[in-house]
Records
---
Amino acid sequence: MSPLKKILFYFVYPACLYFTIIMIVFGLFATLGGFPQYAPTLTAMLWFLLFSMAVAAADKIFFLKKINIFFRVLMHYAAVIISFLLVFVVAVSNYSNAGGAFLLIIVLSILYFFFAALYFIFRGVSTAKKRDETKYKNQFRG
């Protein structure tokens, strides 16, 4: 695979997916919630794109196979929270709404660990299922 294709496949496409999801969530919130003033502006969209790229870069932590999956998830979580802090708290709000940022970090952390727990549950079930499928077969008796 060429270097450009690797960059597109492993970095740009995931960043675009995250950006699209963020824009849909904020658009639905603004439209269905009756808060059109919270619809993302072009500047906000660019900040969301930067955050999406940071999260896509943080996803590369999952490719570090020598590190235990539990620690990879913790490192990814730290990278996402640091990206959130740098982009939204420092760059966008300039520390003006630290309480709101703290609340968003708590919500983001709860969601993150909820989905991480689901991942570990499904991973454990699939691993146990694979183990059950490879039962011992007697080679000497038919």
---
Amino acid sequence: MGAKKIIHDAIFILYFLKDILREKINGAKGTKPSKLGNDIVVLGNGPSQKKFWTNREVFSDYDILCMNEFIVYDEEKFFDIRPKYYCCIDRAMMCEDVAKKVNYPVFLKRNEILEKVDWSLVFITRSHYELPIKNEKITKIGISDRRIDLYNKTIRFELYRKNLGCIPAETVAATALFFSILFGYKNIALFGVDHDDIKEIAIGEDNKVSLSVPHSYDRGKPDKVYIRDELDKKHYIYELFEGYTTVFKSYLEIQQFACAQNANVINYNIKSLVDAFKKADLEE
């Protein structure tokens, strides 16, 4: 490692230690990793999720992790599989003030469903988010959202293991996968982790960028929506592709971390644009 990278890492570690000290003074608490299981299905919400349902018996002994709006639009399936984990990191699904500006009915419906859970469910989210429900059957595991900007992979991975930082996972599926590795799962089956919405990008005559994101629970072709930020400011096409770059790079980092943890990740969608993991096909 060159001198510039060593200096870069040294400066990062100094600021990192300062942040850790400040959090301890303020009483912040993180969740320490512990061995939870061996096999898990990470159930993403892409269209290829349907392969899980037609091959469900193959994974009958696996723990199940679902995410985001699946429980709202496929409530019956949610109560059928009784997943061990639910993952959500979206501010619009975790913060009521943001939800009111985006999709408040879905936020309320999700919370209503979670209040009816009568089995032990672990809610995975960012450490600083409070759970928006009071169900005693549901416990929170907080994932650190501190970015580890280090060239030294040994130190970087050790900070991951201690949940003192995270891979820059821009999607809930990547966060869920990172969690599965972090907490000791060795065989991880991915379903519905497609990320092929890039094929749905369009540019109008007015140069507005639009995109439709298909989900497993769609009842028809999803509408295209204009890409804007929270301040209703237009996004340009290069910004969208910068986001995709971050997403796909994060999966490569996750795969390296999986190897370091002796975890085997298989994506059960051979057409998925995620190229970081081994792929396998199952009958539909």
---
Amino acid sequence: MLSGKQLHGLAAKSWPDMRLLGTVLAPAFDGRRRFCGLYIERSGMIGKKLFVPLAAISHIDISGAYIADSTQLAACKKSAVQPGCIGCAALDAEGRELGSISDMLFEDKRLVAYVVSDGLLGDYRSGRRRYAPQQIQIRD
């Protein structure tokens, strides 16, 4: 399992020939806050920001993000690279605030959990909690 913070800086390689395409900048989310791909920065003198849709990704692990279909890479502006949900409020089903999202956990190509912080003292007392994506609502 990888955290969202561990994704940043991973090598993005083509699969199966292992050609280096660039480095991962951040996970990408759609308008409904669902994980939909990765933002990568192309290696070279002038780093170009690219979006890789989830369907083009073969797998993601600690050694890198492997892109099965590099023809689906799409150029994007650096301003399009958003931090996702980090810092957003996490709410339970009844709308009560649980804390703020401090990280995300990924397993292969799936977002499996949000890590929620309840502040410095709350985290010290009980640790940070993990919630499955379907268990919480996210508010800006």
